[in-house]
Recover the amino acids of this structure.
């Protein structure tokens, strides 16, 4: 099952009681869905990165975090076509073991990094609105870039076990080659899952929830006091809150089913086909977040739309200048040839 690529090894008991039928709609509907998510995610996130990175104006602290979030989303959706093919072939891995390791690690790493970029941007909004004066010195682009490097490094560390222990496992009874996580013991698997849930879900959700509540309180206080001096900050916060809400809606079901899956592997919960279906839906719903974020930038991001328009005008001006220069050179060449003929 695709959730194995992100939630780890499955016990033999669970495999015997949770077998997806070969005629399941999963094998018909999921591959094209993943491919659509991949194509849209690549196009949209490349557009976001172009707007943030190619614009002549330097990015703000929040935009640095959002551009890194777009980079994480882009890397994630680039690996999804391999899993679309894996699902289409009834979970028979058709590629090499190295690709099994790398694609799994990249998906895991970027899913991990995404939530911590949102943690960073939540803290930035919290500081900007709740402590605008006393903490202004820490809201600098250099610190934001160093924070992003730290998040990428942390994501790489947490993805190392995926890269090391993800292996191809041939099943003679089904004649299928699985790409699965093969940790040395069940206790190590459970320890890894618990640590992952704590660091990739519980801790980030606590921080984001705290910051979001304080941000709403600050915005309400400003409205009640009739303060409009920070209108730009409030507009930026609207976009951030929209991205946070979309992330929570898309990813919380995945992490909840991940916890249920861990309980199933410990024997606390019995396996049921309904749990498998919910797991499938939650995984694919989580992937949709990589497409949803760029759409939110356009809908709720006034500053992003302005950047996109300015970049478009900048390119149009360059294109006009290029065509004008080419036209001038062609005219000069024609005049030179006509004079030479005369």
């Amino acid at each position: 099952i695709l959730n194995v690529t992100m939630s780890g090894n499955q016990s033999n008991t669970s495999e015997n009681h949770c077998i997806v039928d070969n005629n399941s709609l999963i094998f018909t509907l999921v591959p094209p869905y993943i491919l659509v998510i991949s194509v849209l995610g690549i196009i949209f996130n490349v557009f976001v990165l172009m707007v943030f990175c190619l614009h002549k104006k330097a990015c703000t602290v929040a935009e640095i975090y959002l551009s890194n979030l777009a980079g994480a989303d882009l890397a994630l959706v680039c690996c999804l076509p391999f899993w679309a093919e894996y699902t289409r072939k009834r979970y028979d891995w058709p590629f090499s073991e190295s690709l099994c390791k790398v694609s799994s690690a990249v998906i895991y790493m970027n899913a991990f990094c995404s939530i911590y970029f949102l943690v960073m941007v939540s803290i930035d909004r919290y500081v900007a609105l709740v402590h605008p004066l006393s903490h202004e010195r820490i809201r600098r682009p250099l610190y934001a870039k160093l924070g992003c490097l730290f998040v990428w490094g942390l994501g790489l560390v947490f993805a190392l076990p995926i890269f090391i222990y993800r292996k191809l496992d041939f099943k003679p009874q089904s004649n299928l080659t699985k790409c699965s996580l093969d940790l040395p013991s069940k206790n190590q698997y459970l320890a890894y899952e618990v640590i992952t849930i704590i660091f990739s879900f519980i801790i980030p959700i606590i921080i984001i929830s705290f910051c979001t509540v304080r941000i709403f309180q600050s915005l309400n206080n400003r409205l009640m006091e009739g303060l409009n001096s920070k209108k730009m900050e409030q507009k930026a916060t609207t976009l951030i809150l929209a991205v946070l809400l979309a992330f929570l809606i898309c990813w919380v079901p995945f992490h909840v089913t991940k916890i249920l899956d861990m309980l199933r592997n410990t024997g606390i919960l019995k396996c049921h086909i309904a749990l498998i279906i919910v797991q499938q839906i939650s995984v694919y719903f989580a992937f949709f977040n990589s497409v949803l974020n760029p759409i939110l930038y356009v809908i709720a991001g006034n500053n992003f739309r302005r950047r996109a328009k300015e970049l478009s005008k900048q390119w149009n001006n360059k294109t006009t200048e290029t065509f004008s220069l080419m036209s001038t050179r062609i005219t000069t060449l024609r005049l030179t040839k006509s004079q030479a003929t005369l």
Observations:
- Strands lie at 166-171, 176-181.
